Amino acid sequence: MTSRDGTGVTAPAAIAAEGLRKAYGDKVVLDGIDLHVPQGTIFSLLGPNGAGKTTTVQILSTLITADGGRASVAGHDLAAAPQAVRAAIGVTGQFSAVDNMITGEENMALMADLHHLGRREGKRITAELLDRFDLVAAAKKPASTYSGGMRRRLDIAMTLVGSPRVIFLDEPTTGLDPRSRHTMWEIIRDLVAGGVTVFLTTQYLEEADQLADRIAVLSRGRLAAQGTPEELKRLVPGGHVRLTFADPAALAAAYRALGDGAAADEEGLSLRVPNDGSVHALRALLDGLDRAAVTPEALTVHTPDLDDVFFAVTGRPGNDKVEAR
Amino acid sequence: MSDLMSPRTVAAHPLRDSLTMLRRNLLHARRYPSMTIGVTGMPVIMLLLFVYVFGTALSTGLGGGGDRSAYIAYVVPGILLMTVGSGTVPTAVAVCTDMAEGVVARFRTMAISRSSVLVGHVVGSVIQTMISLVLVTGVALAIGFRSDAGAVEWLAAAGVLALVCCALTWLAVGMGLASPTPEAASNAVLPLSFLLPFISSAFVPVDAMPGWIRWFADYQPFTTVVETLRGLLTGTEIGHNGWLSVAWCLAITLLGFVWSQRRFARDPR
């Protein structure tokens, strides 16, 4: 599976890129990226730190220029009509793009002014967005006093002032607590329901899985794979359960009980059994152990994660954590 | 795919965007006034030091017979110029700090007039420095500075100071953009805020300086401007310094403006 969708693309592209390249000195950050994001969808660029996700967003949002390749956003060529691209997009960066020295309300007013909205319309939109993102109580406080989740919400609220058609979200949930993360997911789903296109970067497979229509896996400046979450997951070997035992006898008994699919590690006194982690499959596994009258010391369920996807599509782990397979 | 929608022309609002950015910078100055207070405080301290600590001795050296009030008249134009010089410190630091802020990255991805970010900084700084000048002048009058200048001369002096302020501020913006850290930015403007005012006729006549320093002091723009201000406020000979001051200011403004725009147009760090 590669990044090419073939020639039969019919949906109009909100974002289209061909052969994007970027290097800083002799460090190649992007080494030929092709992208096609249909309008009104969520596209997720998935990858570990340093894969080039932020650089891709910076290029597509006109912040920096690519060394090679071409791209268009909302139908406008990045190089030929950057102002037209800017008029159509909204960007929420990894490091929040709010003015910390002024209040949330003043930040919103600043955006309304820069979008050349009338006084009354600016006030209406500001009030509406502050309310929608639960920032009314904090509106008159300096943004520097906001929590991480609040600042991220203000950031997105500011992005929405101009009613952008394409929104770039660079790791919108990195550093957020679980509750704020789920709030952010709801916000992102609502955005697309309104017809905009979302380009999202993340290092969490779960996040891409939850939100994205299509996912591209970025690894060392190249797209290692691209497809729907289901397509990608099919590339990943299934999950497994790891059982640890007190002594070799118990390990041997369990190995006999669970049969061929299991792989024993005699030194570590552990057994690795293919299992999708569902309640049904786990019950069957435990029933098997009961019948053989062995009790494991520990049981851990391992579900496919970004590391597995990376291993599957690039032949190496996403980070330094190497696990025998 | 890229020609799906025909390229739209985006209406530019340079004036409106610059006013918005100016409002933002004045808001910053109002919320965090310590920098602005420093700009006024420094020249006032210099004025008091030079008048009350060095004044009598320097006046003797000037041939004023140890009359402190004669030295006040001599030093006030220099202190006013120094006030403008001090104003470059917060400007360069603020610009350098601002460029590292996420919100400026946001501005760069918005369909606004690009130069408005810098114009907002410059106009904001010029307004703050002009307010400082009024305050410093007030202190000078309070400790005994007397001028026989009429309204026209005062207005001309204010005009010269505004031109200098514009020139030095654009230069400071360029230095702020070129500096990797706020500390480096505040060092970069040291010649404008400190060195050049001292190596000029602001505090003592250049005749009192040795050889090559004297040559440098004679020709550098701070001396030209100080002599112009001194002439307007205390009636000394201005000569060709008036036109030279205006020419220097316009040239430095142009240089600072072009440099800053180029620097800002580059990909951010």
From TrEMBL, chain A:
It is found in: Cell membrane. The keyword Nucleotide-binding applies. GO terms for cellular component: plasma membrane. Residues 15-245 form the ABC transporter domain. Coiled coil: none annotated. Keywords: Antibiotic resistance, ATP-binding, Cell membrane, Membrane, Nucleotide-binding, Translocase, Transport. It comes from the Bacteria. It is a peripheral membrane protein. It is an enzyme of class 7 (translocase). One of its GO terms (molecular function) is ABC-type xenobiotic transporter activity. One of its GO terms (biological process) is response to antibiotic. Its EC number is 7.6.2.2. Its main location: membrane. Belongs to the ABC transporter superfamily. Drug exporter-1 (DrugE1) (TC 3.A.1.105) family. This is ABC-type xenobiotic transporter.
TrEMBL record, chain B:
One of its GO terms (cellular component) is ATP-binding cassette (ABC) transporter complex. One of its GO terms (biological process) is response to antibiotic. PROSITE patterns: ABC_TM2. The keyword Nucleotide-binding does not apply. The chain crosses the membrane at residues 32-54, 74-96, 117-145, 151-173, 185-206, 242-260. Keywords: Antibiotic resistance, Cell membrane, Membrane, Transmembrane, Transmembrane helix, Transport. GO terms for molecular function: ABC-type transporter activity. Pfam families: ABC2_membrane (PF01061). It is found in: Cell membrane; Membrane. This is Transport permease protein. It comes from Streptomyces himastatinicus ATCC 53653.
